[in-house]
Amino acid sequence: MASLTDDEVSCEGTLMLEADDEYIELLLSKENRCCSRARDASSEDSLKSARSDAVRWILKMRVLFGLGMRTAYVAVSYLDHFCVHRLIDSMRGKKWAIRLLSVSCLSLAVKMEELKIPALSEFRTEDYRFQTEAIQRMELLILSTLEWKMNMITPFSYLSYFASRFLEHGSEALAWEAITLILASIEAINLVEYRPSVVAVAAILAASHERLTQKSVELKLSAISSCKPLDTDRVFSCYIESSKKRRLQ
């Protein structure tokens, strides 16, 4: 299982702060306003393969530069939201275009989330080297496509809250284990189709090491008032992906 470094625990320890019902309701209402469904084209094998490659590269850079987990998640969110709003037929078969998109999404996420920002020239790929101007042009295209709405909600804001609702004792350890499952699962799930709250709940349930059926997931969610707005089908689907990753770790 991927582990968190001391620096990450220290810098992102705010993830473990207890959130109240009002704050969670506010986050859920923001999700309802900003989230949309992904295009059916995102399920095409060629696009799924290109996306998986881009996500793996982002996660590799996270480790290389010691970036925060929020940064990686936000970068993948930018990638997925961009692909929803833009027809990417022109990128099909053009590996360099997907790579440029992933570099630019990570660069923007770093600017939003990190205190120390690497130079654009440091975001190197194994197969392509992009000029700074090319990355900046792609950044502007991403910004305009997302209408400059770059402050993304992430599952990490929910983890402590949901962990404490599902497990009375040891909820902090449960939340930290859920973090590793989220990072392991984002290659398999589109972050537009799966809202941050859904990803958070699914990761918490998977981290609990219970073998749950769809019915038992529904019962657990129905017992918590703040979970009732969640799409139980999506939660269960995401739970299955998270559970697969947990078994592989």
UniProtKB/TrEMBL annotation:
Q: Where is the Cyclin-like domain?
A: 56-144
Alphabetical list of InterPro entries matching this protein: Cyclin, Cyclin-like_dom, Cyclin-like_sf, Cyclin_C-dom, Cyclin_N, Cyclins_cyclin-box
Q: Which Pfam families match?
A: Cyclin_C, Cyclin_N
Biological process terms in GO annotation: cell division
Species this chain originates from: Ensete ventricosum
Q: Which family does it belong to?
A: Belongs to the cyclin family. Cyclin D subfamily.
The upper taxonomy is: Eukaryota, Viridiplantae, Streptophyta, Embryophyta, Tracheophyta
Q: List UniProt keywords, sorted A-Z.
A: Cell cycle, Cell division, Cyclin
User: What's this protein's name?
Assistant: Cyclin-like domain-containing protein
Keyword check for Cell division: yes
What's the domain of life for this entry?
Eukaryota
PANTHER family the record matches: CYCLINS (PTHR10177)
